[in-house]
Specification:
Length: 71
Amino acid sequence: MQYQRRSIRKARAIRTKAFFITLLFHLALIGYFTYGTDLSLQDYLPETVAEWVGGGGESEGGSEEVEPPRP
């Protein structure tokens, strides 16, 4: 029983460590592609993802309101 608790804890620690290493790698990769360019990160993101993070997904000049379609 004690062995099972230790193995579960160790597996959880390994998964947590792998998650943070993967997150750090992806952030570094995104930073590498966007560093030193005159484009912002918002230009690289798809519109849906940009809306999730609060950027709106629109580049320059796209600030006009769009009316939803009426039935």
